[in-house]
Specification:
The chain is α/β, with parallel strands linked by helices. The chain contains 12 helices and 13 strands. A 7-stranded parallel sheet has the order 3-2-1-6-7-8-9. A 4-stranded parallel sheet has the order 10-11-12-13, with helices on both faces. Strands 4-5 form a two-stranded antiparallel sheet. It is globular, with a radius of gyration of 20 Å.
């Protein structure tokens, strides 16, 4: 493959992505991979498991230099969350995860059938990839963007008394331990203000905003967990010329909307919701990045608009999180150590104290 380059004895002929459920993780992983390529000055393929029908359309907002692999998508898919009780889903991961990990790594080496952005089927060969794992459910020898789900689940057990089992928390601690691990803040893992000794805190994992997603007028319903809000908000959508985002509470949608001064509303988390979302809501409300809907819809919209108008630029450091993570990955590949240290830990520490 053209553009590959030996680094520290490695050929590094591809970047292979893995990720958790939803659109945010694979778009974040793809953006990070593009930056790593750019900073290294190499031209190797970025191979992305092909899972969702509209994945190509969403990825094309960020670039066209990727290859989709149905084979890797089929292997990864059983490890992803597809709805229902998140806790019930999480309890299955220690039972099936190691088998899926082995299959994924084996399939990602050697001959691989992929599809390019023009729809052409290609057979390529991969000998020495690096892996980027976004909000992982599997352990790979990867550079990792992490939610620190094991911290969130530990808090959930303490706060709600649910019997998750130590195997689940151990599983997430294991899979979130990468070659380098980056935790974005402010977000759910920071609800207790913890500082992570096993990861580097970075500002929100954003590089380029998905501006096209937010070109709408009135009220738009995005994400899951919002069915209860749909009917109520439709009564005011015709009267409002403001852009208003209503979302489940995932990191990417809240951050990107907030960066663009778009008010954000989050409905009450649904039964069985991923604990990450529960703690995200807590942190986002503290920072006035989003407002948890109370049922008084007009009042809720008014609060969200005020939050957006009064946003604090302290939470928009430059460079943004993915740029910092990419620079650290490149430094590691080139054996130049790390520079981040605890520079951004205040984002997590203040998430517990902020009012």
């Amino acid at each position: 493959m053209s553009g590959r380059r030996a680094m520290n004895g490695r050929l590094m002929d591809a970047i292979i992505l893995a990720f958790n459920h939803g659109n945010g993780p694979y778009t974040r992983a793809y953006q990070l991979a593009k930056l790593v390529k750019q900073y290294l000055g190499i031209n190797v393929p970025i191979i992305i498991p092909w899972i969702y029908p509209n994945q190509d359309e969403i990825l094309s907002q960020f670039g066209r230099d990727y290859l989709l692999s149905r084979e890797l998508g089929n292997i990864l898919s059983p490890a992803l969350y597809w709805g229902g009780s998140f806790i019930d889903y999480a309890k299955k991961l220690p039972l099936i995860g190691e088998y899926i990990e082995r299959k994924f790594i084996d399939a990602s080496m050697g001959s691989l059938r992929v599809r390019d952005m023009n729809g052409r089927e290609l057979d390529i060969r991969v000998n020495d990839p690096i892996y980027i794992n976004a909000y992982p459910v599997l352990r790979l020898p990867s550079y990792t963007l992490s939610l620190h789900e094991h911290v969130i689940l530990g808090n959930y057990v303490t706060d709600f008394g649910e019997d998750i089992g130590t195997d689940v928390i151990k599983w997430f601690r294991r899979v979130e331990s990468g070659i380098l691990t980056f935790v974005s803040a402010p977000a759910g893992a920071c609800a207790k203000g913890l500082i992570f000794s096993d990861a580097m805190v970075i500002p929100p994992a954003i590089y380029k905003y998905r501006r096209d997603v937010y070109k709408f007028r009135g009220v738009k319903i995005l994400g899951s967990g919002v069915s209860g809000a749909n009917a109520a908000l439709s009564s005011i959508s015709g009267k409002s010329r403001r852009k208003i985002m209503v979302t489940r509470g995932g990191l990417a949608t809240v951050w990107e909307s907030w960066f663009q001064e778009i008010p954000v509303l989050i409905p009450k988390p649904r039964p069985g919701e991923d604990p990450e979302i529960i703690y995200n809501v807590e942190v986002f409300e503290k920072w006035k990045m989003a407002h948890l809907m109370s049922g008084d819809w007009l009042k809720d919209v008014d609060i969200a608009i005020k939050y957006a108008a009064a946003r604090t630029y302290r939470l928009i450091p430059r460079p943004l999180g993915l740029e910092l993570a990419a620079a650290e990955i490149v430094r590691h590949i080139r054996n130049r150590g790390t520079q981040l240290s605890n520079k951004y830990e205040w984002l997590c520490r203040e998430s517990a104290a902020h009012n």
